[in-house]
Design brief:
Elements (H helix, E strand, L loop, with lengths): L6 H5 L8 E5 L3 H12 L4 E5 L11 H15 L6 E10 L6 E2 L2 H7 L1 H8 L7 E12 L3 E13 L15 E3 L11 H7 L1 H19 L1
Helix pairs in contact: 2-6, 2-7, 6-7
Bound molecules: inosinic acid.
Length: about 210
């Protein structure tokens, strides 16, 4: 293995562990979900809790891409990083809060969303996640995941984070907050995006 490494790689500190990824987030809930999933692919995910810029846009893909490129430039592309952005899109509210989910969670909260849906029959909603990989060797790749479901009539459960107590994925009766991390990972937008990411990384390895 060492024979394959070039002298200048050592000098430029370019040796990276292909099994390790740095997830740029301060959200313990997100981190727990991704670590659990990564283990199944023999990958290690470390939390990189550093500042990232979030632009305002109607498209979470644009938000995630901008943040990822900004962080990658800041760390001079030395280590593989992943930046993820997610949002809750409620059909009866024309996709609100969508890209504004974080702000709406902090301001209106779960009860604010439930009030907006008071008396409305259509509870259909989905979560969408976009995960952007910026890899020193493999380059930039974007992965997405969606989970369809409905908004519950009242909050249930204590697990997870954010809108988990009011979101029921299709095929379930429980809210995300009532599911274990591994059960949430069977359905969630984030798990779908990261599974795509991990499978893509594994497919690169087998070609190497
Ligand atoms: P962020 O900008 O990706 O951190 O996500 C925006 C907001 O969407 C978060 O503050 C959460 O309130 C909400 N959110 C994103 N993913 C989830 C999830 O898996 N469960 C519950 N809420 C989520």
């Amino acid at each position: 293995m060492e024979d394959m490494l070039k002298k200048e790689d050592f000098e430029n500190n370019n040796i990276i562990d292909m099994n390790v990824l740095y997830f740029v987030t301060g959200n313990q809930g997100k981190y727990r979900e991704v670590v659990e999933l990564a283990r199944k692919y023999g990958l290690v995910v470390e939390m990189l809790n550093i500042e990232k810029i979030e632009i305002q846009s109607d498209d979470i893909r644009e938000i995630a891409l901008f943040s990822a490129r900004w962080v990658a430039a800041k760390i001079r592309r030395k280590i593989p990083i992943v930046v993820e952005d997610a949002g809750l899109f409620i059909e009866a509210l024309n996709g609100f809060p969508g890209p504004y989910s974080s702000y709406v969670y902090k301001t209106l909260g779960l009860n604010g969303i439930l009030k907006l849906l008071d008396g409305i029959e259509n509870r259909r909603a989905y979560f969408r996640a976009v995960a952007v990989l910026e890899h020193p060797v493999l380059g930039e790749q974007v992965f997405e995941g969606i989970v369809y479901g409905r908004i519950a009539h009242y909050p249930r459960g204590t697990g997870g984070f954010g809108f988990d107590p009011i979101f029921v994925p299709e095929g379930e009766e429980k809210t995300f907050a009532e599911l274990s991390v591994s059960d949430k990972n069977k359905y969630s937008h984030r798990a779908r995006a990261f599974r795509n990411l991990f499978e893509w990384i594994r497919s690169r390895f087998s070609k190497a």
